[in-house]
């Protein structure tokens, strides 16, 4: 971290995000669908429910999924935060909200520092351009000088190992090839704030090792890391703080070992139920 620059931070105040699910003209169909959802919500087994957010009807009678509800959170420089929780708890939505992909329905998001989000491999790439042209495109977007773009090109080309495919349009790439290029590009510049979805650690084992080494080096240099993963070893190794989400709300927040102990216990209870 540059000591003379203001410290990086992320601050979320009363953040709520909801997704409309039914925008149906037919009131009767909407009524039937929602009464089925209501029945499920009133089921006594529901407290054991492992997936999904709350589904509600708004004042306008629209049916929405409440992906995040009144999230208050500050993340400061030096923190390595893991977002945990069952499928549909709101982890990816929270990451995407911080990047600005999702607009809050209410509340505020403030941040300071350059954010890089490792969320999807082809984000910001043009499918009609070649791998090499996409590298140039990224360099231009980042406002790099010609010399810096040439360095970026060398670095990403060597990392992605696409050989002659680097000259071909990326729309013909396999998903693994796209991942190599996308990963190489997204990890070529060290951001202040690094946001990462767990699948970014996937890939073939040879590539995974290489990708991991590259990731470790940018994670070490970034001021803030926020990642979502279901892997307990990754949380233990990479994170010093865990935020546990359930149905769009924070139910626990604290040092990794302390939260993991409760989380593991809850998972055992779930598998027993
Ligand atoms: N674009 C969308 N439209 C409608 N509902 C959505 C959308 N994206 C997410 N959701 C809903 O919001 C809730 C939170 O989803 P999110 O992807 O944030 O969960 P998650 O905790 O990342 O889950 P997982 O561990 O399965 O990746 C879920 O109930 C999901 O169905």
From TrEMBL:
Q: Which InterPro entries match?
A: AAA+_ATPase, ABC_transporter-like_ATP-bd, ABC_transporter-like_CS, ABC_transpr_TagH-like, Bact_Polysacc_Export_ATP-bd, P-loop_NTPase
Question: According to the UniProt entry, where is the signal peptide?
Answer: none
Q: Which GO terms describe its molecular function?
A: ATP binding
Q: Which UniProt keywords apply?
A: ATP-binding, Nucleotide-binding, Transport
Q: Where are the transmembrane segments?
A: none
Q: Spell out the SMART domains in the cross-references.
A: AAA (SM00382)
ABC transporter domain residues are: 53-272
Family note: Belongs to the ABC transporter superfamily.
Q: Which protein is depicted?
A: ABC transporter ATP-binding protein
């Amino acid at each position: 971290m540059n000591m003379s620059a203001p410290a990086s931070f992320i601050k979320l105040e009363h953040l709520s995000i909801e997704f409309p699910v039914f925008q149906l003209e037919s009131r009767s169909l909407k009524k039937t669908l929602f009464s089925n959802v209501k029945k499920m919500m009133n089921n006594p087994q529901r407290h054991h429910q492992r997936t999904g957010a709350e589904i509600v009807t708004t004042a306008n009678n629209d049916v929405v999924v409440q992906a995040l509800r009144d999230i208050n959170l500050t993340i400061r420089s030096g923190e390595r935060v893991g977002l945990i929780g069952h499928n549909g708890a709101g982890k990816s939505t929270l990451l995407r909200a911080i990047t600005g992909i999702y607009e809050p329905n209410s509340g505020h998001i403030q941040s300071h520092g350059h954010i890089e989000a490792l969320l999807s491999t082809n984000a910001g790439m043009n499918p009609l351009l070649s791998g090499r042209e996409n590298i140039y495109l990224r360099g231009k977007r980042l406002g790099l000088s010609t010399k810096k773009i040439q360095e970026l090109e060398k670095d990403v080309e060597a990392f992605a190992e696409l050989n002659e495919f680097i000259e071909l349009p990326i729309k013909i790439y396999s998903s693994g090839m796209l991942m190599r290029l996308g990963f190489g590009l997204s990890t070529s510049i060290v951001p202040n704030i690094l946001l990462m979805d767990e699948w970014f650690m996937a890939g073939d084992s040879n590539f995974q090792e290489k990708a991991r080494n590259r990731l470790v080096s940018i994670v070490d240099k970034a001021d803030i890391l926020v990642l979502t993963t279901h892997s307990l070893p990754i949380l233990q190794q990479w994170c010093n703080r865990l935020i546990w989400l359930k149905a769009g709300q924070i139910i626990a927040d604290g040092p990794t070992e302390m939260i993991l102990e409760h989380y593991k216990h809850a998972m055992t209870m779930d598998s027993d139920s």
